[in-house]
Amino acid sequence: MTIPLAYNEEVADALAEGRPVVALESNVITHGLPYPDNAATALKVQDAVRAGGAVPATVCLEHGRIKAGMTDVDIERFASATGVPKASCRDMAVILAEGRMGALTVAGSVVAAELAGITFFASAGIGGVHRGAERTMDVSADLIQFTRSKVAVVCAGAKSILDLALTLEYLETHGVPVVSYRSADFPAFYCVSSGLRSPRRVDDADVLARSVANHWALGNPGSFLITTPVRAEDAIPGHEVEAAIADAVAAAERNGVRGNAVTKYLMRAVDVATEGRSSRANMSVLVSTAEVGGSLAAAHARYREEIGNRP
Ligand code: PSU
Ligand code: MN
């Protein structure tokens, strides 16, 4: 092992005792919201994991180490710093070698979680296949990393800045399970439904915990995706964001936005267009995915104990 992992005390103790832990991404802190809302939100999301019954481990890169569990001081430093680079799986090696700060995306976070021995990861929204990907080939590395890292990913689907039908096709092709917990449809971040039926629905947390364990017992190498929708009272109707998304996608092309800048550009544009409504929904979905992630990680830890912690 040449890449050091730095655990905070709470996370180290929980892992040593077999208690449930949920990894959380740091890219939402540095690239999702303005300071100081981002710091306050990151702490609320951690509390939501605790409310669900697990220990939160927000993951990032700093001083040549993967941090598994940021302290409140770490979160404040990341939230207030400017220019912390977005770190996807391809970026991690160089950022670690240079000893710089890196804000982990979903792809980077599942790499970190697996190395740290953390089975569950919660994120409000994952990356996916972009609209127009048949021309641009813009497919988030999040999806590719899901085929490699053994982590259970709990999310509210993805924003419909993406082509969600193609995103589901990609996951199906690569054998990544997509299970909607207590809902029938694949959600779209702050919309309860993307209009697409989920490939599978499971309502029982213990069945879902066993399903996650079975996936790896069957020899599968990658992630297990679980979706949970935003609370209905905080949701935004799909048609209200559709026009904003279409405008944002067109503007991104017109302005030649490319590569890893595309996602942030689109999210910003849609947030500006839906002002106010989206920030409440955003907060709600960050908290609810974290809380559900905590409760499912707890169910999984109970199951692991039941079977004598066999791999
Ligand atoms: N999609 C969302 N919300 C997000 C992101 C995507 O609905 O916050 C962020 C996540 O950090 C995700 C990253 O891992 O963007 C994906 O970026 P890209 O499309 O460049 O792979
Ligand atoms: Mn991309």
Automatic annotation (TrEMBL):
PANTHER family: CARBOHYDRATE KINASE PFKB DOMAIN-CONTAINING PROTEIN (PTHR42909:SF1), ZGC:136858 (PTHR42909). Catalyzes the reversible cleavage of pseudouridine 5'-phosphate (PsiMP) to ribose 5-phosphate and uracil. Functions biologically in the cleavage direction, as part of a pseudouridine degradation pathway. It catalyses: D-ribose 5-phosphate + uracil = psi-UMP + H2O. SUPFAM superfamilies: Indigoidine synthase A-like (SSF110581). GO terms for cellular component: cytoplasm. Mn(2+) binds at D138. It comes from Actinocrispum wychmicini. Belongs to the pseudouridine-5'-phosphate glycosidase family. Binds 1 Mn(2+) ion per subunit. Pfam families: Indigoidine_A. The lineage of its organism: Bacteria, Bacillati, Actinomycetota, Actinomycetes, Pseudonocardiales. This is Pseudouridine-5'-phosphate glycosidase. Its EC number is 4.2.1.70. InterPro entries: Indigdn_synthA-like, PsuG. The active site is at E25, K159. Homotrimer. Its cofactor is Mn(2+). The keyword Metal-binding applies. Substrate binds at K86, V106, S140, A141, D142. HAMAP family: PsiMP_glycosidase. Gene3D superfamilies: Indigoidine synthase domain.
